[in-house]
Amino acid sequence: MSAIKRFFSSHKTSSNSKVNNSQHHDNQTSQNKSSNNTVISGGDSEKLTETNETIEQEEIKENITPTMEIPMKSDSMSSPEIESSNDNEEKKSSKSSSWTIEDFEIGNLLGRGRFGYVYCGREKQTRFVVALKILFKVQLKNSKMEQQVKREIEIQSNLKHPNILRLYGFFHDEQRIYLLLEYAPGGELYRRMQTEKILRESEAAGYVYQLCNALNYLHTKRVIHRGILYYIKPENILIGKYSILKLADFGWSAESTSTCKRTTLCGTLDYLPPEMLNGNGYDEKIDLWCLGVLTYEMIIGKPPFDSQTQHETIRMIRSIELTFPTGTSGDLRDLITKLLRRNPTDRLPLKDVAQHVWIVKHADIAAIEESYVKRKKTLNREN
């Protein structure tokens, strides 16, 4: 049996003394501040691992790629309950075949958010590496975010595309929910944008092409990936193996139908389209606007409607006050201008974005398609 099959088809009984011995620290966050420990805090902090036993990045890179499609355990995709810690007996009986944190080694911190952390994790028996997203139930419950987490699990578990971060499964205990996500060794796109300031046109065009593929897939599934609006969050747009871009964080996605438009205001201000600022209903065409903003920022180095005040940014978005630095190519201007249209129906469709002259001229589409093939071979086959 392969390591990946064993990963999700067998239950292990190994123990993690570090986790077991630290349970009494859950309500003593202030006492868990040691320079030698990696501590997960946030209302019910717990020492998960010690620094000298963390997973080294060089070691991780050798084990990040699964060799075949991962079969799910029969109980791995049932929705977790976000409840009080008084229901221990019920949870114990329902968790007899579930994974626990004891099955994993916890490595480097990959990111953090409002409700938890993302760590690099490695399953002890198979050495299979995942991104382990840890969410605290009490914080989710207090913030009334239970449904958002369930939505994230329900949506992402049904998505299989090379440009979509895989959700392999999840488990939960009395205090936390653990999501087992595909590990993206390239890290955050936003971090790369911060480091490079301005991306090469060939790199940016390749990313736009891949985002078109991802968004087209999501739209056929009737999912609006508002995550692009939240790209500054650590888990939103990641760079995976073979430089394949990965959309993630589907807690802010929403199912869409042709007869229903969402009205929730969300997203960073720089990326909000006019219809959301005006409180109008919106559909998947908000992603076209966001794609235009992201394209501009990757090449120019700042959002197109960047200003000193929120009021001024809102005014610029509503009036489509769009300017380009001297030297910006006509092809790039044309693409961005056709995406940043006030009327959503006037925005360039995804299929036309992928075939736009700027994309064709600068993106190495053949190399991108080959990376998809390489990924598929390493997975053996997609379901």
UniProtKB/TrEMBL annotation:
GO terms for molecular function: ATP binding; protein serine/threonine kinase activity. InterPro entries: Aur-like, Kinase-like_dom_sf, Prot_kinase_dom, Protein_kinase_ATP_BS. Residues 104-359 form the Protein kinase domain. This is Aurora kinase. It is an enzyme of class 2 (transferase). Pfam families: Pkinase. Signal peptide: none annotated. Its EC number is 2.7.11.1. The keyword Secreted does not apply. It catalyses: L-threonyl-[protein] + ATP = O-phospho-L-threonyl-[protein] + ADP + H(+); L-seryl-[protein] + ATP = O-phospho-L-seryl-[protein] + ADP + H(+). Residues 28-38, 74-85 have a biased composition (Low complexity). Keywords: ATP-binding, Kinase, Nucleotide-binding, Serine/threonine-protein kinase, Transferase. ATP binds at residues 114, 133, 182-184, 235-236, 249. Belongs to the protein kinase superfamily. Ser/Thr protein kinase family. Aurora subfamily.
